[in-house]
Amino acid sequence: MEAYVSRFVDRVTIHVAAGSGGNGCASVHREKFKPLGGPDGGNGGRGGDVKLVVDPGVHTLLDFHYRPNARASNGKPGKGSMRNGAAGEDLVLSVPDGTVVLTPDGEVLADLVGAGTTFVAARGGRGGLGNAALASKARKAPGFALLGEPGEELDLVLELKSVADVGLLGFPSAGKSSLISVLSAARPKIAEYPFTTLIPNLGVVTAGETVYTVADVPGLIPGASQGRGLGLDFLRHIERCAVLVHVVDCATLEPGRDPISDVDALEAELAQYTPALAAEHGGQDLASRPRMVVLNKIDVPEARELAEFVREDLEARGWPVFLVSTATREGLRELSYAMAAEVERYRRELPPPEPARVVVRPTAIDDSGFTVEPDPDVEDAFIVRGAKPERWVRQTNFDNDEAVGYLADRLAKLGVEEELAKVGAKPGSQVTIGDMTFDWEPSTPAGVAGVLGSRGHDSRLEGSDRVSAAERKAARQARRSSLDEHGGYAGSEEEDDEW
């Protein structure tokens, strides 16, 4: 039978995709004696968001390691009789307390601390308007509706930084897991070989009226800040700690090891890994964090003698030093109360918590800003960039001539056609907006969209006698085919220019 091995994952890349908005409906109300009762197409529903929410019951990012793709549901399309489509359901992803959300480039988007903290990772697309909402004096019975917008889709990096008050530092087999097991109710794995602990252990300690949490950093060795051992993966877990405690093995038989050199080696690693703490910790770095030293395993006679010998040198640095034995529990009571006192002092020095203020930054969806610039890859072609024209193109059904005419009216009112003329665009020039490229044909002035025809058609698009790009391409191919078949002259450059 295959054994199940639990894993701890504290950094993972996920792909989130919000739901797309539903399409609007193009419908005409019909009933007895009222065959054309007016447009009654409903709007499409909004797509669902993808949200990250801190859940106290979640302690690892393991679920995202196995299921890195998350997609919210789409909005439903609108229907006739003024029925709007249902909005897509939001997808809520539970993350551990202390999760940091970053872009693949390392930009911090959110620092999720505290149960219930929510971050909208991807926003759903808006639903398209139905033809009832598009009706106007000039276009009383639109034969088209707008398409729903696609939802946001992006990659995110989730990084877990444990929220603990006391961080235990030490070489492998220094006794950090044993210390947590006797100070708290935690039961970490303990064995007589290095790198026993492969995940950060957390324990809750009660000392008098003070309750605080203790966490260890697995397997720190010299070079951990450059990626050796396990240190680089777990150093981030001490960034939020109020107190850092060195746990020193005084009974080690390894050559070249002694309590002073062990502490100096780990301090050198911390000096090379000093990212600034989050704002809730006063912006201090690891170098300014209070230190304590625990000389462990004094139940061994030689270890007790060594601990007494180096105690004065460590205290000269201004650090409290405690001699303890996790086997006999000697000195543990004094240690737990001393750590509680440091945690209480740190908590008193923190600024009083302020109620969270909700900052609303609405997106300027009506911003008319856009730019027109020459296309660097195509001659006599132009690119239009701007949130509004790009959104209008995504909402347009290009299989419907009336919808295309409506888009042309909107672009003309925005001033896109006027700007294209200023930069030198000519009829037939290629214009790219978003993912759509088309031949520019100057339309009638904005506001003269009331040239009515059959539903779904726009007479302005049908009345152009200019040869389209597709027709020009077909003519060139035909002439080349004629040359290949007969090997003779099949036209002149002047004729090509006329086309």
TrEMBL record:
Organism, as annotated: Saccharopolyspora rectivirgula
Give the residue ranges for region: Disordered.
444-499
The name under which this protein is listed is: GTPase Obg
> According to its UniProt record, which cofactors does this protein need?
Mg(2+)
Q: Which GO terms describe its cellular component?
A: cytoplasm
An example GO BP is: ribosome biogenesis
All copies of the OCT domain together span 362-442
Q: Which gene encodes it?
A: obgE
GO MF, one term, reads: GTPase activity
Output the lineage of the source organism: Bacteria, Bacillati, Actinomycetota, Actinomycetes, Pseudonocardiales
Top-level class of the enzyme under EC nomenclature: hydrolase
OBG-type G domain location is: 164-344
- Where composition is biased (Basic and acidic residues), the residues are 455-474
Residue ranges annotated for the Obg domain, each copy included: 6-163
Predominantly, its location class is cytoplasm
How the protein assembles, per its UniProt entry? Answer: Monomer.
The subcellular localization recorded is: Cytoplasm
GTP-binding as a keyword? Answer: yes
Keywords of this entry: Cytoplasm, GTP-binding, Hydrolase, Magnesium, Metal-binding, Nucleotide-binding
Question: Hey, which family's this protein in?
Answer: Belongs to the TRAFAC class OBG-HflX-like GTPase superfamily. OBG GTPase family.
